[in-house]
Amino acid sequence: MSASSHTHNHDPEEGLTFQPKFDASGLVTCVATDAASGDVLMVAHMNDEALRKTIASGEAWYYSRSRKALWRKGESSGHVQRVIEMRMDCDQDAVWIRVEQTGAACHTGRRSCFYRAVIGEGGEAKLTFIDADKVFDPAKVYR
Amino acid sequence: MSASSHTHNHDPEEGLTFQPKFDASGLVTCVATDAASGDVLMVAHMNDEALRKTIASGEAWYYSRSRKALWRKGESSGHVQRVIEMRMDCDQDAVWIRVEQTGAACHTGRRSCFYRAVIGEGGEAKLTFIDADKVFDPAKVYR
């Protein structure tokens, strides 16, 4: 491969051009993990503006599908996410951010949204609480 | 809360009833992380059947949106994912599995699909390779 073909490699998988592949709603999936523990904190979505604001500010911005609005993580709760590293996946439709989470990521008050494990029992699946202690009281934080 | 109301708590966020919230295409998002390193390996989707097969077999099954088909991870490559733990998020539209990954998760031959970091430079974003060594040669594995 010549230097010039490498420079101009726009292959989404092998190139170095940032070209997010937004879905029909204009979104990519974003996984936020705790930079210290490696735990998955939440899965949410970013539109083009949320991606750009996250990259520019170093703090996580998302797009809320239910509220149909751009959303700075922690704007109501103060529980911001400082981005330590952002990565893009092979086909550029998913983003992984490693963050320093202030307080808790989940609106229920837990550190992570993934506070229940799935247990299979005799063909049936059920949930069990795990790491489910509340870091804050949602009734006091969101009013 | 009485014992009986607790048993019958079907609140998706606070209950223990497994009730995945599938999107319009019948899918939930699944994040697979490496149980050993905590790295995010891939983001993919599961339909009801993929979820049930994953829970029943202890190996990851997905639904491929591009191929419109159920897909046992590793069925072509041998690079299966043994599920150590499965968790569900607050509103039950995303699943997190911690897995033991045989070989590599990414079809490009890398251990993880997230082999490029996003770097912001003067308002522009670009990618840079990170942990991008290939574990296998896709041309030899997929024929």
TrEMBL record, chains A, B:
SUPFAM superfamilies: HisI-like. Its main location: cytoplasm. Gene3D superfamilies: 4.10.80.70, Phosphoribosyl-AMP cyclohydrolase. Its EC number is 3.5.4.19. Binds 1 Mg(2+) ion per subunit. Binds 1 zinc ion per subunit. Residues 42-115 form the Phosphoribosyl-AMP cyclohydrolase domain. Zn(2+) binds at residues 90, 106, 113. It is an enzyme of class 3 (hydrolase). Pfam families: PRA-CH (PF01502). Belongs to the PRA-CH family. Homodimer. Catalyzes the hydrolysis of the adenine ring of phosphoribosyl-AMP. This is Phosphoribosyl-AMP cyclohydrolase. It comes from Afipia massiliensis.
